[in-house]
Amino acid sequence: MFTSITDLFKLGIGPSSSHTNGPMIAAKDFVTKIKAINPTFLKGKRLNLRCRLTGSLAYTGIGHGTDTAILLGLNGYSPAQAAKLSFNGNLEKAIDSFQQKNFIEIVQGVCVNFGPASGIEFDMKLVYPEHPNGFSFTLSSAGEKERVILSETYFSVGGGFILTKDELADKSKRQKEKKGRRKVPFGHSQKHTYSNMSELLSIAEKEDKSFAVIQMENECMSSAESVTEANICTVKEAMFASIERGLSADGQLPGGLLLERRANKLYSDLSANPSNASVNDWLCAYAMAVNEENAAGQAVVTAPTNGAAGVVPALLYYLTKHEEISESKSREFLLTATVIG
User: Fold this and answer.
1) pLDDT, mean over the chain
2) Is 49 part of a structural domain of the chain?
């Protein structure tokens, strides 16, 4: 059941890993598939690109920013790249720029007609039997008889992970063949093989190794230790950046509930009287800061989802800022959190 730290802790934008980041990844993937088509075949054609959201995505997509996430993905942005725009203060500017256009340039000389209002359909009648978070992209040639050139159906299965319809069917088939035992996800090899906590504890006791060491040794099967350490550093920096942005931001959160941000005031009150603050008070402020950034559609790190993105960063931030733990202890913390999932 090994999961790499870069698979569990992913940089993205709020407010949802399944309804925001998953669709963005799928949109970018579909553009990659269009690019694989011979450009000579596409040049000179009037091309239409359409997205159809169904099920939960159709009902709650507007509130989750699914439409803007798809727009970012179709324009070549991954969740991590969108998060960098957020950290730089340029996310809204990029989205506004894309919303002004009614076309997307796939490669030089190949453009597709796609307007945010007309290109995305919120189909509340259709629900795919395979999964409630289903959606599709279709590229077609415009004309008297519109002809489909490329089509793909995706499912956003949680945590920012996506599967095509064929991949989901294949996964279901393999799970039945394995009788419930999960395969190693995402194609990673591993030194220590386990399927549940009991097996993981057995390895730790038998080999006298901590969870962090077991995770690092598995990570090193597919990348150098220095690479994993760099990835951990990136995750930590992004988590802390989300907290600090949230602590400094004020005003109203987006949406119809007219909720005011609270982390800023809570942190200011605690900082003014630190001797009266408990550990839980600080943790609440730090976790709330991340959750408010997530609600505002800004950059967060899935931990392991957007909805749960506040707790792990808050704990690590508190240990770093108040208990002054070392860098090695920070790495151990995140490696252990990755094992537990």
Assistant:
1) 93
2) yes
Total of domains in the chain: 2
Q: What 3-state class would DSSP assign to 65? A: coil
The pLDDT tens digits of the residues spanning 256-287 come to 889 999 999 999 999 999 999 999 999 999 99
In this prediction, residue 176 has a pLDDT band, given cuts at 50, 70 and 90, of low
The CATH number given to whatever domain includes residue 142 is 3.30.1330.90
Cβ–Cβ contacts within 10 Å for residue 66, how many? 29
Give the DSSP H/E element, type plus range, for residue 121: strand 120-123
CA atoms of 53 and 126, how far apart (whole Å): 9
Looking at 153, 168, 183, which one is the last position of a domain?
168
Which of 161, 56, 185, 61 is CA-nearest to residue 116? 61
If asked whether residues 28 and 158 sit together in one domain, one would say yes
- How confident is the model over 162-175, as pLDDT tens digits? 999 999 988 776 66
Helix and strand element counts for the chain (H, E): 16, 9
pLDDT value, residue 173:
64
How many Å apart are CA 141 and CA 151, to the nearest integer?
12
Domain limits at 55?
18-168
For residues 164 and 22, membership in a common domain is answered with yes
User: CA gyration radius for the chain?
Assistant: 22
